[in-house]
Each structure stands twice: as structure tokens, then as C-alpha cells.
Design a protein that fits this description.
It is a single chain. It is built from 13 helices and no strands. The chain is mainly alpha-helical and 218 residues long. The protein has 2 domains: 101 residues, Serine Threonine Protein Phosphatase 5, Tetratricopeptide repeat, CATH 1.25.40.20; 99 residues, Ankyrin repeat-containing domain (Serine Threonine Protein Phosphatase 5, Tetratricopeptide repeat, Alpha Horseshoe). Helix 2 runs antiparallel to helix 3 and helix 6 runs parallel beside helix 8. It starts with a helix and ends with a helix.
């Protein structure tokens, strides 16, 4: 009887030791930027791409929180830049939307899937253009091979988003310059046939309009 108890205790201890650290700890550490806790969680057996109920990985949470060094560590440990959450965000897509340029640059060598789309049918570039994340746009248009003429579910390209959702200020002017230099079709209209130039003129975005005219906009 005593022998059986000892054996069962031993087996129970082995099972307990084999259990990975809770993904919640990994995710909390990623959000707060605790690289030591992340390393401990991964060394303890937590899968690097373990997800929460929303399908978010530690890398996606690191992007959300702007934790560059955490992202670096997770990528070194094999985290996927393409793991898609319930809302369709991936680390790559969200980094573009939030203007996390340093993290995006780290991701370039980890095979981002440029065919994946966010919940609006957009790429990493389109929301970056909407929000005027100039350095992010510069990186995406010069180093990633991203499609600058992709049309999202709203019927808008990155150029249309700059004009329709931007404010026509310096950041959006530079965004316009960058996407035009990268080959954006200046006359690709929205679903109603309204071109970027027509939108810019309606909104009084004179500096943007000048760039569009110079590029052959109609």
C-alpha cells in the first residue's frame, strides 16, 4: 500500500512538472515588457504562439503594447508574424496599423504573409496611410514588396485612405509622396468613380492635390 502511494505521488509530481507555464503569464509578461518572465515561460514549456480566447498571441500583444524588445525575443524564439486572431489581426498587420516601425523591421526577415488581410480587407499599409505613420509607410513601400494598389472591402486603396480619412497635413502629404513614388495608381477611383484628386479638392487638401496633379491625377 505504501509502495503504491509512493508510486502515485511520483507520477503526480511528474505530471505537474510536465505542465507548461500558463499562457496567461506569457501574455501578461509580453504586455508589460518583461523579457525575463517571457524566457522563463517559454523555457517552462509554454508554446510561443499560445493564444488567449481572442486568438491573440504574445507577439500580437507585444505589438499592441509597443514592446520592441519583447517582439525581438519572441521572434528569436520562433513566434509567427502571421498568426491571425479572431478579429483577423496578425502581428504584421497590426504593427502596420499602429505604426510600430521598429517591430515591422524585425519582422521582415520572418516571412510575413502579404496575402493576409485585416477585418476591413486591408494590408499593413492601408491603415498606416490612413493614420499618417510616415516611417512605417516608408519601410513598407521600400522594403516589404507590399501591393500599393490593393483595394480593401470599402473599395479604397492606400492613396484613397490618405485623402478620404487623412487631414491633408504634413504627415499625409508625405504619405502621398511615398505611395506615389512606390507606384500607387493616382487615378484608381473609389466605387463611385471618384478619384483621389477629386476627393482631395473636395476636402481642401491643396498640398495633396498638387502632388496628385504632378503625378497625372485627374
Amino acid at each position: 500500500m505504501k509502495f503504491a502511494i509512493v508510486v502515485l505521488s511520483f507520477l503526480f509530481a511528474q505530471v505537474v512538472m510536465a505542465q507548461p507555464v500558463s499562457p496567461q503569464r506569457l501574455h501578461e509578461a509580453a504586455t508589460r515588457g518583461d523579457t525575463k518572465a517571457i524566457a522563463a515561460a517559454l523555457d517552462g514549456g509554454t508554446p510561443v504562439d499560445a493564444t488567449d480566447r481572442s486568438g491573440q498571441t504574445a507577439l500580437l500583444l507585444a505589438v499592441t503594447a509597443g514592446q520592441t524588445e519583447v517582439a525581438r525575443l519572441l521572434l528569436q524564439r520562433g513566434a509567427s508574424v502571421n498568426a491571425q486572431a479572431v478579429n483577423h489581426d496578425t502581428p504584421w498587420l497590426l504593427a502596420g496599423a499602429l505604426g510600430r516601425t521598429a517591430i515591422l523591421e524585425l519582422m521582415l526577415s520572418h516571412k510575413p504573409d502579404l496575402s493576409l488581410r485585416n477585418r476591413f480587407g486591408g494590408s499593413a499599409l492601408i491603415p498606416a496611410c490612413e493614420r499618417g505613420h510616415v516611417e512605417t509607410i516608408r519601410l513598407l513601400t521600400t522594403k516589404s514588396g507590399i501591393d500599393v494598389n490593393l483595394v480593401n472591402n470599402l473599395g479604397w486603396t492606400c492613396l484613397l485612405e490618405i485623402v478620404i480619412l487623412g487631414d491633408g497635413g504634413p504627415r499625409h502629404v508625405e504619405a502621398t509622396r511615398l505611395v506615389l513614388a512606390a507606384g500607387a495608381n493616382v487615378n484608381l477611383a473609389d466605387r463611385d468613380g471618384v478619384t483621389p484628386l477629386a476627393h482631395a479638392r473636395r476636402r481642401g487638401q491643396s498640398a495633396v492635390a498638387q502632388l496628385l496633379v504632378a503625378a497625372g491625377g485627374k
